[in-house]
Structures are given as C-alpha cells and as structure tokens.
Amino acid sequence: MSLFSSVLVLGILGLIFGAVLAYASKKFAVEVDPRVEAILEVLPGANCGGCGFPGCGGLASAIAEGNAPVNGCPVGGSDCSLKIGEIMGLKAEEGEKKVAKVICKGNCMSSKDKYTYEGIQDCRSANVLNGGAKSCKYGCLGLGTCRDYCKFGAISIIDGVAVIDEEKCVMCGKCMEVCPKGIIISKPQKQEIIVECNSKDFGKAVKEKCSVGCIGCGLCAKACKFDAIEFENKIAKINPEKCVGCMECVQKCATKVISGNLKNRKKVIIDEELCVGCTICKKQCKFDAIEGELKEKHKVDPEKCVGCHLCLQKCPKKAIKTI
Predict the structure, then answer these.
(1) Which spans in the chain are helix H?
(2) How many other CB atoms sit within 10 Å of the CB of residue 29?
(3) Which of 144, 173, 170 is nearest to 158 (CA)?
(4) pLDDT, tens digit, 9 for 90 and up, residues 242-267
(5) Number of H-type helices and E-type strands within the chain
(6) Labelling 48: which of 14, 17, 86, 263 has CA 20 to 30 A away?
(7) Rounded alpha-carbon distances, angstroms, from residue 99 to 126, 182, 235
(8) What is the dihedral of CA 223, 226, 228, 233, to 10 degrees?
(9) Rounded to whole angstroms, how far apart are CA atoms 220 and 200?
(10) CA distances from 11 to 4, 54, 142, 150 (A)
C-alpha cells in the first residue's frame, strides 16, 4: 500500500505541476512576430555578425521591428534582400556590393625585414614586437590572422601578404577587426583602381623599406584630368565618385602601387552611320582622341582613347560604342 500511495501522490503532483506550467506558459507567453521566423528561414544562417547584430536571429528581430533595413545581411546578397522585402512588404534597394581590400603590396620580394620573426604565427602577437618584422611598420605582416578569422575562405596569404578573393568576400568585417595594422578597408567591388599602400612615411623612407610603396611623387595626380586624386598623410587617395576609370594614374605611377589592369580599358568607336557631326563628343574628350569637324563624321584615335567614356555618355545619337 505504501508503494501504491507514493506512486499516486507523485502522479497527482505531476498533474498539478503540469497544469500550473501549462497555465504559466500561456499567461506569460511572449508573442513572437511570425515575420521573424520567416526572415530567419531566408537568412543564410552564417551568424557572422557582419550586419552589426548578434547573429541572424538578432538581425531578423531588428528587421521585423523596423530597426534594420531589409538588405542588412551582407552575406545573403540581393536575392536574400528581395525575399525579406516581400516578407516585410517593402522594396529592397539593391546597393552596390562592397568587399574588403588589403592596401599593401609589400610582399617578400618587394619589402625588407628588420629581423627574423620566429614567434606565434599571429599578426597581433608579432605586432607587439616593435611593430612586427617588416621594416615598414604600416605593412601587412602576412601571418594570416585575418585568414584564420574569415569564415568564408576569402583570404589567402600569398608571398607574405594577405590577398582577398572578392567573389567570396561578404564584407562581414571580421578581418578588419583583427588586423593590427588597420590596412584592410571596405571598397565597392567595382572599384578596380586603388592605391595599395598605407605608409605614412616620406618618399625616401618608403623607398628604403619597400619598392612598391607610395612615395608621394604626385605623378598620378598630374596625370588625372578629373581631379580624382588627393593626398592624405603623404599617400595618394582616389575618390571613387570622381574617378572615371581611365587608368592614367595606373600607367604613370612610378612604383606601380596603384592597382588596375590596363588591358581592361574599354575603348570606344563611333558608328559613322549614326554620327551627325555635332562635335559634342569631341568637346567632352579630355585626351584629344576624337577627330572631325562640325557636320563631319567623327573618328576615335585608338592610340589616344583611354576608355573614360565621357563621349559615350554625352552622345545624343548613341553613336558611340565600346569595343
């Protein structure tokens, strides 16, 4: 009887506690916005923190509450933004993709070392020892801390310098956070032309430490006809809002520190059947690459054309095409 009584008492207590818990769960239940769950299903689930919120759950809640944009996930891309926009009943604005970029070209061949480092293979640890082994205290240490923190396999160490695969980069910002030199920046993916140097030294000191550093000679600024190059802390900086991609700065740079493939220049030709000889294109060209007088058919000199496309944008007859 004692065993039966014990089982009976435990059973009754279980029923009572179960009823209390069921009542409490309904009484104190927190209502969850169904859109949060829907958004979570759309998000990639990387939980990288690149959106500025604590994981995908934090971003989903913020979007549902109106505290984050529908395109707030840097990993998901435009497809993810469009789907979230549908859930929220909003139109997602497709912004230009941004990627991380290491602004240093000082590899093992071009930069000098001041000592041999044999410590922990971590850039932050190496940086404690007099700024690292490289003579240039502003350069990439190449020990791969940024690579180790990248969850997307977008970073490789090539010849002692970190290199970012822009196709794999989702701009989560982890590499920027852990780089002790602060030489990883965010840039529009389409921006090909960029000064890959972070040195604050004067030209002579830069040349003594690295053969591919910016020496502040000013040749790039003189070559630029669009005032897109300014100098900040002795380094040339390219304004992407003004840059038209003519790559004259790339061609004139004395140390080849400005990135840009001259083979990517898209020069233009004029369709003579459409040309009316208005001379608008000729007036726009800053490189004297267009020949022809008023009411005559115009031609482009391929040797002078740099592919800035100002003429193409201004032609009223759409007679100019890229080649």
Answers:
(1) 2-27, 34-42, 55-65, 77-88, 123-128, 145-149, 174-178, 203-209, 219-223, 248-252, 280-284, 310-314
(2) 8
(3) 144
(4) 999 999 999 999 999 999 999 999 99
(5) 12, 12
(6) 86
(7) 26, 15, 21
(8) 50
(9) 18
(10) 10, 43, 66, 54
Going by pLDDT thresholds of 50, 70 and 90, the confidence category of residue 49 is confident
How far from the centroid of its chain's Cα atoms is residue 95's Cα? 12
Length of the chain: 323
pLDDT one-digit tens code per residue, 181-218: 999 999 988 899 999 999 999 999 999 999 999 999 99
- Distance, in Å, from the CA atom of 280 to the CA atom of 278, rounded to the nearest integer, reads 6
Q: How far apart are CA 184 and CA 198, in angstroms?
A: 10
How many Cβ atoms from other residues are within 10 Å of residue 143's Cβ? 23
For residue 280, give both structure tokens. 């608008």
Give the C-alpha separation, 181 to 133, whole Å. Answer: 13
pLDDT-wise least confident of 43-52, 167-176, 276-285, 286-295: 43-52
Question: Dihedral sign, CA of 178, 123, 112, 163?
Answer: negative
- Beta strand spans in 86-173 (E): 98-102, 155-158, 161-164
Please, what is the Cα angle at 212 between 211 and 217, to 5 degrees?
Answer: 95
One-letter amino acid for residue 196 of the chain:
E
**How far apart, in whole angstroms, are the C-alpha atoms of residue 75 and residue 45?**
9
Pick from 268, 243, 266: nearest CA to 192: 243
Q: Check residue 253 and report its DSSP letter.
A: -
What are the residues facing 290 on neighbouring strands? 300
What average pLDDT does the chain have? 90
